[in-house]
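Pasting as-is:
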Amino acid sequence: MEKAIIVKDVSKKYKLYKKSSEKILDLLTPKSYGEDFYALNHVDFEADKGDVVGFVGINGSGKSTLSNIIAGIVPETTGSVTLNGQAALIAVASGLKGDLTGRENIELKCLMLGFSKKEIQEMEEDIIDFAELEKFIDQPVKSYSSGMKSRLGFAISVNIDPDILIIDEALSVGDKAFAEKSLEKMKEFKAKGKTMIFVSHSIGQMKKFCEKILWLEFGTVKDFGPVDEVLPKYEEFLKKYKKMSKKEKKKYREEASKKNAELKTATI
């Protein structure tokens, strides 16, 4: 099958500083300051055209980092990402400018994606209607609730009709009715053969909507495969992890991070 997304040996490194002066010294001097932190560590992942892939993993596993890299929002440190088509990220406040109104954000985002002013005018009312923000659309986005921002971001992204749709926790905020409407829209995209990445803590939504699951654990790929193979293993892990004490969770994280560091050293 034709590949829609190819993520090859992708790592994302950040620097953690104890104080702001360390960051300045790191920029100005040859000596290295701060601690290296790998949000992603040698990640390989491919999605075929038309795949609907769920990203799962406990907080801090790298789901949003990988989503942002695939969407082109942040660059990878090493490795490569190849996309077959245009990608759009739907996340709370993703790409929205707080000082601009909702309408101005629609125009700006669509202009940046290459749409003409005429095309934007034709799309604008559909976007506003879908977002259900009629009386708020000319208010600054910084005055919006997280649910309103999510609705606007979702409405823009689905109406520009991208080839690859990345939904990062966008349905976890706002009202249930809008979430159900959004899921219906996503089903339309699925029927059209669009490729979708779905990041959510809702196992129920994953089972209902996804075909494959990518399980990330502290920046590395723990498992990848069909929903009915990977999700039961992840659910079993979650049960055990939730029963752990804070001390046990900390130990588990430290051991997993150590394995990741060993992986990094072995593959450099």
